[in-house]
């Protein structure tokens, strides 16, 4: 498994750009701030990562089933008692499988299950959690959890 590095750079007040080492970038901002649109919020990026990882892995785990028209919708559901966290995430795989083809139904269901049980790093990290460390410029650890 690869390690990853993303750099988030401040463009202005509540306006950030995240970049990877391959030159891709995405704008991050507050949804309610019209001055930073179009952009993704951090939670939207988490949901996008779940959908993207699910899609990339499903291409491999469900390769025996034609899934060119696959659409993955990822939604978060939070309640006040979730205390600033996403309470639940729903990942919906939308695809018209051949009617009456139980083999395709079973293969696709198995592929989706394996995606989340075994192969999608993002899904498995969200499910099991990860250690988070926050460090200051001098290297001082000011927060750690997980």
Automatic annotation (TrEMBL):
Protein name, as recorded: OsmC family protein
Keyword Nucleotide-binding attributed: no
Pfam families membership: OsmC (PF02566)
Source superkingdom: Bacteria
Membrane-spanning ranges: none
EC number from the UniProt entry: 1.11.1.-
Keyword Coiled coil listed: no
GO MF entries: peroxidase activity
Keywords assigned by UniProt, alphabetized: Oxidoreductase, Peroxidase
PANTHER family membership: PROTEIN YHFA (PTHR34352:SF1)
């Amino acid at each position: 498994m690869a390690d990853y590095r993303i750099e988030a750079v401040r463009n202005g007040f509540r306006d950030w750009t995240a970049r990877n080492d391959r030159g891709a970038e995405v704008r991050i901002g507050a949804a309610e701030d019209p001055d930073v649109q179009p952009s993704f919020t951090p939670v939207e990026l988490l949901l996008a990562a779940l959908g993207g990882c699910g899609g990339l892995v499903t291409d491999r785990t469900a390769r025996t089933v034609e899934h060119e028209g696959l659409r993955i919708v990822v939604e978060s559901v939070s309640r006040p008692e979730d205390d600033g966290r996403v309470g639940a995430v729903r990942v919906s795989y939308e695809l018209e499988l051949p009617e009456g083809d139980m083999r395709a139904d079973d293969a696709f269901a198995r592929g989706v299950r394996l995606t989340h049980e075994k192969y999608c790093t993002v899904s498995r990290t969200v499910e099991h959690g990860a250690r988070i460390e926050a460090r200051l410029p001098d290297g001082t650890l000011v927060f750690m959890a997980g």
